[in-house]
TrEMBL record:
SUPFAM superfamilies: GroES-like, NAD(P)-binding Rossmann-fold domains
Transmembrane segments: none
Entry protein name: Enoyl reductase (ER) domain-containing protein
Keyword terms of this UniProt record: NADP, Oxidoreductase
NCBIfam families named among the record's database cross-references: quinone_pig3
Residues annotated as domain Enoyl reductase (ER): 10-323
Length: 325
């Protein structure tokens, strides 16, 4: 089969399409013939040598895909050859075929194309597990999303609105802000033109927000705390602009602030399977009702993975980027 390999840690140019040994299906797994694979910032980190796959898993990048089941391993009863699925992967999605633990496989939501469904598993599992399972975001609360134009951001805007929340988001251009508002965000802030702290406090009458979803990291940590309401919660999903910050713990204690962080890839297979079931139960209905839609503006053939990574790292994209074998 063909797969995108990382020749050595480095820039996008180290990605290369090669003929490699075909993926094999193991016990408790399914083999998927890939129709589309989605790019994630974690793939870029892996390419640079900073985000290795779990032990024993594929060395090729790619954390989510959609496709058709090509083979079923022993012990698997929920899936059969020919089923159209999307999957949360430990790696290996940038290929013509990939194996996935059966518990991390999901049906294609009704009304969504097989291709576009590739962009759902990682963002759906990430957003649901962080905002709702961990931080218990609830109807009537206000959510601030740092990076509304990202794959995570575009999904979080729609899901939070579907669950009855007010959404404020930041983005780097007026065009992205406008697109975020069209997706459902109540307020959009161009962080290159406005102080998001001042604007957020103005829009909340000085009360602040209940929950923040942040992909920026260290530079925003203290500023994020300035806009949190009493009992506010922050989930740090990324370290896009840095990973070291000095924190004044006084406001944390005074306002009972919670700071949480994790990565989906580092979780156990059992934990991921549990999250997947929660997503199918709580998120898939919102997709099938049309309240949450795929946001895919860019697709590239598998041999253009270099171009996809360059676009992702430029931050000029909006929503998800897909690779098509």
């Amino acid at each position: 089969m063909k797969a995108v390999v990382i020749r050595a840690p480095g820039g996008p140019e180290v990605l290369e399409l090669r003929v490699v040994e075909e993926a094999k299906v193991g016990e408790g797994e399914v083999l998927i013939k890939v129709v589309a694979a989605a790019l994630n910032k974690a793939d870029c980190k892996q390419r640079k040598g900073n985000n290795p796959p779990p032990h024993g898993r594929s060395l090729y990048p790619g954390l989510e895909c959609s496709g058709i089941i090509d083979a079923v391993g022993s012990g698997v009863s929920d899936w059969k050859v020919g089923d159209e699925v999307c999957a949360l992967l430990p790696g290996g999605g940038y290929a013509e075929k990939v194996s996935a633990p059966a518990g991390q496989v999901m049906p294609i939501p009704k009304g969504v194309s097989l291709r576009d469904a590739a962009g759902f598993p990682e963002v759906a599992c990430t957003v649901w597990s962080t905002l709702f399972m961990t931080l218990h975001l609830s109807a009537g609360e206000t959510l601030l999303i740092q990076g509304g134009g990202s794959g995570i951001g575009t999904f979080a805007i729609q899901l939070a609105k579907a669950k009855g929340c007010k959404v404020i988001c930041t983005a780097g251009t007026d065009e992205k802000v406008e697109k975020c508002i069209k997706l459902g965000a109540d307020i959009g802030i161009n962080h290159n033109e406005e102080d998001f702290v001042q604007r957020t406090l103005e829009e909340t009458n000085g009360d602040g927000v209940n929950v923040i979803l942040d992909i920026v990291g260290a530079p925003y940590l203290n500023r994020n705390m300035e806009v949190l309401a009493m009992d506010g919660r922050i989930f740090i999903l990324g370290m896009q602009d840095g990973f070291r910050a000095e924190v004044n713990i006084a406001p944390l204690m005074k306002r009972n602030i919670t700071i949480a962080s994790s990565t989906l890839r580092a979780r156990t297979v059992e934990n991921k399977a549990s999250i997947v079931q929660e997503v199918i139960k709580n998120v898939w209905p919102e997709i099938e009702s049309g309240k949450v839609k795929p946001v895919v503006e860019n697709t590239f053939p598998l041999d253009k993975a270099v171009v996809g990574h360059r676009l992702m790292e430029s931050n000029r994209h909006f929503g998800k980027i897909l690779l098509l074998p």
